[in-house]
Fold this sequence. Notes:
Blueprint: E1 2-6, H1 10-21, H2 23-26, E2 33-37, H3 73-81, H4 95-111, E3 115-119, E4 123-129, E5 132-137, E6 141-144, E7 146-149, H5 175-180, E8 188-191, H6 195-206, E9 213-216, H7 239-245, H8 266-280, H9 284-291, H10 295-299, H11 303-314, H12 321-324, E10 329-330
Parallel strand pairs: 1-2, 1-7, 2-3, 7-10, 8-9
Antiparallel strand pairs: 4-5, 5-6
Helix pairs in contact: 1-4, 8-11, 9-11
The chain binds flavin-adenine dinucleotide.
Amino acid sequence: MRIALIGGGPTAVCVMHSLLRSRSVLGSGEQLDVTVFDPSTDLWCGPNYAPDLSEALTNVHAADMSAQHWNEDHISDWLRKNQVAEPVGSTFVSRPMVGLYFRDAACEAANDMEHFRHVLSAVTSIRMEENQVHVETSAQSYSFDHAVMCLGTNTFADPYQLQGVPGAVVSPYPLSKTVLQTRATDRVAIVGTGLAAIDVVLALKSSGHQGPITMVSRGGLLPPVRRPRLEYQLRHFTVDAVERLAGLEQREPRRRDGPTRGHVQLRDMINLMWREFGEAGASRDARFRNCFPSASVWKGFGTNSIAWMTARSLSLWPSNPRHYIRRRVVPTGAG
Ligand SMILES: Cc1cc2nc3c(=O)[nH]c(=O)nc-3n(C[C@H](O)[C@H](O)[C@H](O)COP(=O)(O)OP(=O)(O)OC[C@H]3O[C@@H](n4cnc5c(N)ncnc54)[C@H](O)[C@@H]3O)c2cc1C
């Protein structure tokens, strides 16, 4: 089976491990032939885990950063082997360190595949033709049975069009470069008080910055980051439930008006999600208000649109390769 991974960041690493785990789904004798397209020099790290100051910490616990979502020991063992102090469930480690982990995890997975290659180019277009996915770079065209989008969602907004303005930094990463653009006594304004803002403050502090730092935001709130780990077992919004909906597993009779085998209707996904929220004791209204605090933002949407956005924003559904490999082209989102 020829599979293209478009983008070679952490998502691609996780997909590679999941593909190996799911060999049995592919059928006996099926060989894994994986090609990763990525033009970046920071292959496997993406921009967020690339080499940088150690002040840039992960915002989830180390164990939750495993490339094998079913096996948190995969990252914990790596951290122990690489002598990172106390690499257990509740530790937050530096993102550059996690980048090194992703790199090693990718090599491990690539070695276990029958065929693997990396194409150091950006993908410029994808098209479906005769049951094949045709992937184009500026230099060449390739054909695959499946393609998985692992492109990430990394763009820093520039609403005030500050790009190129002396003294303005639109994208704060890598932090090591950003702090070099300031002098120790400069007055620094940070627009926004989210995770990146906190990284910048910590980076300035570590560089010995002495000038005043002012953080500006509409809400005036710092993000709810590095919370205690939530132990919650999904009961309804699960991979198995979605496979049943899609008729991929024949445990329940298929509805006459149901979707074509292998497809899932959005309406059914949303219903599953509401059942999960009900099980967890969360009301729909409370959920909306939590995700969309300004009523004017969500009043214009139907409840189903909001439910869908809520599901995406909560990243409730752990990534699972069984879905990636059963479709031709699957968009995936970042966590
Ligand atoms: C500052 C910051 C901190 C974060 N911290 C955490 C954290 O601690 N924990 C966490 O779980 N999440 C965190 N995130 C979320 C983070 O986005 C994801 O964890 C992770 O980086 C997503 O990985 P990815 O592979 O999907 O995307 P990315 O890491 O963005 O990788 C995408 C890859 O696709 C490549 N690419 C893009 N376009 C093309 C193309 N046309 N052709 C070929 N290749 C292409 C890029 O070169 C890149 O290598 C953070 C995000 C930010 C911005």
